[in-house]
Specification:
single chain; 181 residues; mainly beta; Tumour Suppressor Smad4; six-stranded antiparallel β-sheet; 1 helix; 7% helix; elongated; FHA domain-containing protein
């Protein structure tokens, strides 16, 4: 067996080399350098842009938006989050079990499961879970909006959501995976 027998050359490379060989018209040796010129004009043709299709970033490595309740903990939106005084999961299970975040509501002004935050593609969607009191949304550069019963809104980093009784949720920029809870 020869040492060269174990080299594998893809057919696409062989075909490309054959086309390049056929396109060569003249080879000059100038001062020890090899100069290869193609057929026809001696003008240099602009190279075609190379498009490289990269594989998608695995879900576990993609940074997720984050949120903070008050001045407390920060959580990653790697799965939906349901926030309220005694939050519960939806009755119909989904592929991702939601994160349940309990907040203080001494006067009962915050519903048991008040709000859902969910990452949808490259956006964060806040959904009122049919509460009686709703929530106030402050998106930077926009007037305050009242999130009505059952309504949803896209929120951006820097947005704040007031659930009532001084409980404010802040939407944060995507962070490195594993940094937030």
């Amino acid at each position: 067996m020869h040492e060269d027998d174990d080299d594998t050359v893809p057919q696409a490379v062989v075909a490309g080399l054959a086309r390049a060989r056929d396109a060569v018209d003249e080879v000059d040796n100038a001062l020890g350098d090899t100069v290869v010129r193609g057929r026809g004009s001696r003008k240099r043709r602009p190279a075609a842009p190379v498009v490289v299709d990269l594989p998608p970033v695995p879900q576990a490595l993609r940074p997720h938006y984050r949120f903070r309740v008050g001045s407390g903990e920060t959580w990653e939106l790697d799965r939906p989050a349901r926030i309220g005084r005694r939050p519960s999961a939806p009755r119909v299970p989904s592929e991702l079990e939601p994160r349940l975040v309990a907040v203080e509501s001494p006067n009962g002004g915050i519903s048991s499961t008040h709000l859902e935050l969910r990452e949808q593609g490259s956006a964060v969607v806040a959904t009122d879970l049919r509460t009686l009191n709703g929530s106030e949304i402050r998106v930077p550069g926009s007037p305050v909006q009242v999130l009505q019963r059952g309504a949803s809104i896209v929120v951006t980093p820097g947005s704040s959501i007031d659930l009532g009784e001084g409980v404010i949720i802040e939407i944060l920029t995507p962070g490195r995976p594993g940094v937030a809870r």
